[in-house]
Write a structure and sequence with these properties.
Elements: E1 3-8, H1 19-24, E2 31-39, H2 43-52, E3 56-61, H3 76-96, E4 100-109, H4 117-137, E5 141-146, H5 149-159, E6 169-171, H6 178-187, E7 189-193, H7 202-213, E8 219-221, H8 243-254, H9 258-273
Parallel strand pairs: 1-2, 2-3, 3-4, 4-5, 5-6, 6-7, 7-8
Helix pairs in contact: 3-4, 4-5, 6-7, 8-9
Length: about 280
C-alpha cells in the first residue's frame, strides 16, 4: 500500500537526532508523499528538505505582514501593504519551487488564551489576512482550529475561498462535529483525519463518528507528527510510518479495506495539492 501524509512537522526539534534516518526509510513503510509544514523561521530548511527528498512537499506560512501588538484599526493600510509585498515575494519563491503546494497552517486558537471578544476579533483579523494571501497566491489552505470550531467555520463560510480543482483546502486535525464536517465538505474542504481516531477519548470517539458519517472521497489523512500518535504507541513520538494505523482504523469504521482507504485518500490529497506525479 502507498500512503499520503497530508501534514507533518519534520523540522520539529524532536526529529533533530534522527530526522534523516527516518526519512531515508519512509519508502519501506509505503510513504509515497508527505506535505511538511513550514513557517517563516524554518522556510529555508523546509525548502532544503523538499529538495533532498523527492516525496516531500511543502505548506508554507510567511507572516511577513504580521505585526505584534499593532492597532489593527489604525494600521490596516500598512498591514495590507506588507501583505502585498509578502505575496509578491512568495509568488517568486513558488515559481522557483514547484514543491510548494499549500498555504498554512493558520487559523484561530483559543487553547492558551481566553476567547474574549477582543481576542476573537484580533485573531479573526489575522485569519482573514492569511486567507487573502492564500487567495492571491492561488494555494489551497491548511486550516488550524484550536477550541474555535464555530468561529473558524463562520469565517471560512464568509471567505468563500476558491476551489483549485481538488478542493479549497484541508481542515487540519479535524475536531468538529459530524454535521460541521458535512457542511465543510459542501463548501469544498477536505476533512483531515489524524491518529486521534484510534483513541478512546471523547475527541477520538467524536472523530470516529465523523469518519463514519462522511464519504471517503472527501477525506484525507495526516500524522501531524511528532504529535497525535495513534494507539498503541500514543505515548511515543509520531512519524509517517505509523500512518497505517490510522488507515486501518478508518477501514474498520467504514467497513472497507485498508488498501481502499489508502488508495482513495492518496488520490484525494494529490488532487487537493495539485500533485500529478
Amino acid at each position: 500500500m502507498k500512503y499520503f501524509d497530508a501534514h507533518a512537522h519534520y523540522l520539529d526539534r524532536r526529529f533533530n537526532k534522527d530526522r534523516h534516518e527516518l526519512l531515508q526509510h519512509m519508502h519501506k513503510n509505503g510513504i509515497e508523499f508527505i506535505v511538511n509544514s513550514t513557517n517563516s523561521r524554518d522556510l529555508e530548511k523546509g525548502l532544503q528538505l523538499a529538495k533532498q527528498y523527492k516525496f516531500i512537499y511543502l505548506s508554507i506560512l510567511d507572516d511577513g505582514y504580521y505585526k505584534d501588538d499593532v492597532d489593527i484599526d489604525k494600521e490596516e493600510v500598512l498591514i495590507d501593504e506588507l501583505l502585498k509585498e509578502t505575496v509578491v515575494r512568495l509568488k517568486k519563491l513558488r515559481a522557483q519551487n514547484k514543491k510548494i503546494v499549500a498555504m498554512g497552517e493558520f487559523g484561530v486558537d483559543f487553547r492558551r488564551v481566553k476567547p474574549t471578544a477582543k481576542e476573537a476579533r484580533t485573531q479573526a483579523f489575522w485569519f482573514k489576512k492569511d486567507l487573502e494571501a492564500s487567495r492571491r497566491l492561488g494555494l489551497p489552505v491548511v486550516i488550524h482550529s484550536g477550541n474555535a470550531c464555530e468561529l473558524v467555520f463562520k469565517l471560512l463560510k464568509e471567505a468563500d475561498m476558491p476551489d483549485y480543482g481538488g478542493g479549497c483546502g484541508m481542515i487540519h486535525c479535524y475536531l468538529g462535529s459530524p454535521k460541521m464536517a458535512c457542511d465543510y465538505i459542501k463548501m469544498g474542504y477536505k476533512i483531515s483525519v489524524t491518529g486521534l481516531v484510534t483513541h478512546m477519548s471523547p475527541r477520538g470517539r467524536n472523530l470516529a463518528e465523523v469518519v463514519k458519517q462522511i464519504p471517503l472521497g472527501n477525506m484525507i489523512i495526516e500524522t501531524d507528527c511528532p504529535y497525535l500518535t495513534p494507539e498503541p504507541f500514543r505515548t511515543q513520538r509520531n512519524n509517517s510510518g505509523l500512518l497505517r494505523l490510522t488507515v486501518e482504523k478508518i477501514a474498520e469504521i467504514k467497513k472497507t479495506s485498508p488498501k481502499e482507504v489508502a488508495r482513495v485518500t492518496l488520490r484525494n490529497s494529490k488532487a487537493l495539492f495539485g500533485i500529478d506525479r
